[in-house]
Amino acid sequence: MATPRKTLEAWKASDFVPSAETVAHLRERAKFVRLETIRLIEIAKTGHYTSVFSAAELFSALYYDVMSLRPEDPKWPERDRFLMGKGHAAVGQFPILADLGMFPKDWLDDYTRLGSPLGDHPDMRKVPGIDFSSGSIGHALSGGLGMCLAQRFTGHSYDVFVMLGDGEMQEGQVWEAAMSAAHHKASRLIAIVDRNGFQLDGQVDDVIGIEPLDEKWRAFGWEVHVIDGHDIREVTTTLRRIKADENRDKPVCIIAKTVKGKGVSYMETEPGWHLGYLDPEDAQRAIAEIEAKEI
């Protein structure tokens, strides 16, 4: 695997549980993601706060602990791939890529402005570190499967992580890709469902019910883990164990139970905040809550 052997051995020595120092660092980075999302949406004057806030711990664990990357070489052939099905949450991904050094941090200051490579959705042609352009939901799992299958011809060895919204589970192409991935034993494919319970039109289960979600993925031939998507220790431990398992023989789905808008009380589980803009007073309230809380 592309992850250094010494890293895998260290994970195994701790039974894959991150140290207190690592947990504190990942929590701080998740907080950073939320705060930078507020700053960038202030530049754009509209954006998807709550879709980022539900996934902040997932982003943090993946980028700062689990995935094998070389920020100085964003196109490194052996890098792990990350595809964002819920492309409207890219505003939370961009600060991480800049923080890691994949592109200059001052790019963030022109987010969505004319001529900026950073738009409301990720563009793999313009942004170093973006592996898949997305926005129209439902396509990312198919793209991730293709990247997995390509390894059989190129000889590379990497994992492919695909983050999906739970509203995205209503898309037929997701299930076609799920069926195909199991058939082809795409064991390097890891889907992460951000199960925050909401989509643009309201509660997911009111629009089109998707439960029992874990049983559906298992029925399609996937290994399934259901976790608390805001428990950074559980998130990181689960991802490490999957990453280090050299005997995987099927694709993996992680259903992360999350809260839409997590970290800002007046946004949590409020569908009206799917797309919005904070006035200066509300922005300061949100920042104060995020800075004061330990999730």
Account of the 3D structure:
The chain is α/β, with parallel strands linked by helices and 295 residues long. It is 42% helix and 11% strand. It contains 11 helices and 7 strands. The strands form 2 sheets. It has a 5-stranded parallel beta sheet, with helices on both faces. Strands 4-5 form a two-stranded antiparallel sheet. It is globular and about 50 Å long. It comes from Pseudomonas putida.
Determine the number of helices (DSSP H or I, runs of at least 4 residues). 11
How far is the first residue's CA from the last residue's CA? 32 Å
Tally the beta strands. 7
Number of domains: 1
CATH class: Alpha Beta
Instruction: Say which CATH homologous superfamily is assigned.
Output: Thiamin diphosphate (ThDP)-binding fold, Pyr/PP domains
User: In sequence order, what are the helices and strands, one letter per element?
Assistant: HHHHEHHEHEEEHHEHEH
Characterize the biggest β-sheet: 5 strands, parallel
Topology overview:
Blueprint: H1 5-13, H2 20-44, H3 49-53, H4 56-66, E1 81-84, H5 90-100, H6 140-154, E2 160-165, H7 172-183, E3 189-195, E4 198-199, E5 202-203, H8 204-207, H9 213-219, E6 223-228, H10 232-244, E7 252-257, H11 280-292
Parallel strand pairs: 1-2, 2-3, 3-7, 6-7
Antiparallel strand pairs: 4-5
Helix pairs in contact: 2-4, 2-5, 2-11, 4-5, 4-10, 6-7
